[in-house]
Amino acid sequence: MNHPSTGQAIRKDREGHGEARGRIMPPPSSHEDRGSQSLQMLASLWRRKWTMAVIVAIALAIGWAYTKTITPIYHAQAIVAIESSKSNVIDIDAVASGIGGSNFFDIHTQVQVLTSRKLLEKVVDKLDLMKVPEFNPSLRAPPAWREWSGYNDLRAALGMERPEPVVFTPEQARRIAVDMLVGRVTAGSIPRTLAFSITVQSEDPGRAADIANAVAQQYIVDQLEAKFEATRVATEWLSQRVAELQIDLEAAEKQVEDFMTSTSLVSEEALALQNRQLKDARERLADLGVELTGENALIADTRAALESKDYARAGELLGAGDVVRLAESLETYDETERPQRAERIEALIDSQLARHEQQALRLTRQIEALRKSVADQEALIAEQSRALVELRQYQREAEASRTLYEFFLARMKETAVQEGIQEADARILSDAVRPWGPSAPRSSMLMTIALMIGLMVAVAYILIAERLNNTIRTARDLEAFTGLGVMGTIPEAPFRRRRALIDYLANKPTSNMAESLRNLRTSILLSNIDHPPQVVTISSSVPGEGKTTCSIGLAVTSAMMGKRVLLIECDFRRRVFSTYFNTGDRPGLISILSGEVSTPDAIYQHEATGIDVIVGEKSPVSATDIFTSERFGQFIEAMREHYDFIFLDTPPVLAVPDARMVAKQTDALVFAVRWNSTTRAMVEDALALFGQIDLPVSGCVLTQVNQRQMARYGYGGYGGYRGVSKYYTS
Fold it and tell me: N or C: which end of the chain has fewer CB within 10 A?
């Protein structure tokens, strides 16, 4: 028995130990003890492997259904090889050449030719694809759903007329067929070869092969037609050019003829002779000029000497020895004879000068005549030279016209010979054959894609669900979040009827659930070693979290140890004890506190376990007022004298404030959290309400735990460890 003051001491000691407890703690920043993030992700995927399997199965089913709705497509391939040849600009091959060996990369141009509309139009006409439903939508049968009577009735009800079938004109059908064929024909070069492939897809295997072969054959035919057309055009052009060149040649030759008849052109030899004569004349003219200059100088010097009476000098200049002798003897004469002698000398000098003047005049006339002759010869030679140059120009033009005419005449004859014997630059290396099976849809590939998509969707769904899950799923999560110790984990009950709880615990004392409840009771007692709790309150944040199961389980397991146990139902609104015990219409706690009945008369004693039970009653008075009354406190203190343990089952703290009022009269407050159901926000709000009145929570208990699933999260209580379950009877 404990003294009434013992309860107050226990509460003070609990408050002292619990000042730093009951606060919401942030989760640890590091999770070394829980493994790496990748391992956690793998664990999450493994926990929901069946969900993943269902999503993947749905994706596979959708993929399989999709493959059944797709029309099979067949591919046929033909291979065309290029015959390499050298091209020459002036050779006939240049006129109608195809793909030369030096233009290997031009094969990409030929690929474009293969898929060109011009070539495919001929293929459409050749195979008459306008009459094939695959290439003419107007010939296709309408979808089955359009023929469904319900669809037609719905359109009629909506006032919509039945759609008329689409009919294309021949030109429209041809254009549509070509458009569709363009999208079904592909061509590509084969690496390191002078060949390319032609691939055609069609809904019919035989038609795919026929179209591929027709494209290859039409490509060869187009090459030949292009060469024939090029040869024909070249022949026509060369013929026209030869005719033009012939006219030009005739005109050039006539121009030479006309020029030669219209000019007095001498031969090149005569012109050279004239040039030599002109040269001689120029030299003669130069000599005469020198001679005339000498004569004029002699005359001038002689007259100067004559004027100065230097008769000897004049005689020397004239080369007259007699004049020189007479001049020298002039001094020997007396003054009277000298004038006569001087006149005689002057007469001799004048006669000599007259002869030289006559010579100078003759030279002057010769020079003038020779100059006129030289000028005439120069003009004649210049005219002859210009005429000769012009004649040579006309002759060269005529010769060039003749050479060009002969060249084009020869090319025209060669082209005419080549016409009709052209060969294509490509040949069909491999004909397309009818494919054995469809190339699309590739069921294996589509199913693989569906599998990958299913896996990605499943993984994304699971990871997002895990990320958005804000519930408590492990004891360590609860302890890390609240900062409170987790006193135990209570597994799910292996039964559905509430009344079976007490019988189960009594008949299977070594079951997992019974051991978990005993472990919880031990944790409560050890929460305060100096003053072990006697009065224990069990509460939760919201209804349905297993607090009543914990209360009854703690009472039963304590009574099985021979302890005197009192179980009080403090939830006056729900009053569920009657579903666990056969209490009938027995009065409860309200009747005891009001004094209507005595405590022994209100207590129901369970025969199988020996626990005493006080049920709740419906009361017009507020339950909060009852639990805050002095009489309730006195009642609890009085019950301490008679019982070893008193367990109070209270309503949820987020619903009503009753639990906070009741907990003030007790030694320990245990907070129940339902596994994988109660959110962190609920736990935080509930513990905050207890913190508002400085009421510490002794610890938490994780209830209704699916231990098999919880073990996958890395912690599942004792029952979740490997091999531990063999210690239990269930």
Answer: N
Q: Whole-angstrom Cα distance, residue 488 to residue 513? A: 11
**Burial class of residue 100, CB neighbours in 10 A (0-12, 13-18, 19+):** middle
pLDDT band, residue 87 (cuts 50/70/90): very low
Cβ neighbours around 701 below 10 Å, total: 29
Locus of tokens 């027709």:
214
Q: How far apart are the first and last CA of the chain?
A: 36
Give the tens place of pLDDT for each residue, 619-640: 777 878 888 889 999 999 999 9
Average pLDDT over residues 674-701: 91
- Distant-in-sequence, close-in-space partners of 318: CB < 8 Å, separation ≥ 6: 298, 302, 349, 352, 353, 356
Question: Are 139 and 210 contacting, i.e. CB atoms less than 8 angstroms apart?
Answer: no
Structure tokens given for 676: 């994988």
Please say whether the beta carbons of 550 and 648 come within 8 A: no
Nearest to 231 by CA among 422, 465, 29: 422
Give residues with Cβ within 8 angstroms of 565, minimum separation 6.
555, 558, 559, 610, 611, 612, 643, 644, 645, 646, 647
Structure tokens at 542: 């919201």
Residue 602 near residue 587, CB atoms below 8 Å: yes
Say if residues 491 and 513 touch (Cβ distance below 8 Å). Answer: yes
Distance between CA atoms of residues 174 and 135, nearest Å: 9
Mean predicted confidence (pLDDT) in 488-515: 86
Nearest C-alpha neighbor of 663 from the set 546, 491, 547? 547
Token pair 């002095």 is found at 630
Task: Give the span between the Cα atoms of 422 and 413, in whole angstroms.
Answer: 16
Q: For the segment 90-102, what is each residue's pLDDT rounded down to a tens digit? A: 454 544 455 544 4
| DSSP states along 232-289 | HHHHHHHHHHHHHHHHHHHHHHHHHHHHHHHS----HHHHHHHHHHHHHHHHHHHHHH
Report the share of the chain in percent with pLDDT over 70: 83
> Tens digits of per-residue pLDDT, 406-434?
888 888 777 776 655 667 778 888 999 99
> Tokens representing 647?
């367990």
Report d(CA 673, CA 701) in Å as an integer: 6
How many CB atoms lie under 10 A from the CB of residue 261?
8
Amino acid identity of 709? Answer: Q
Minimum mean pLDDT range among 292-296, 310-314, 367-371: 310-314
CB 213 within 8 A of CB 78: yes
Least Cα distance to 498 among 430, 580, 569 occurs for 580
Question: What span, in angstroms and rounded, lies between the C-alpha atoms of 15 and 695?
Answer: 7
Angle at 662 between CA 656 and CA 665, to 5 degrees: 160
> What is the residue-wise DSSP string for 187-231?
EEEPTTSSEEEEEEEESSHHHHHHHHHHHHHHHHHHHHHHHHHHH
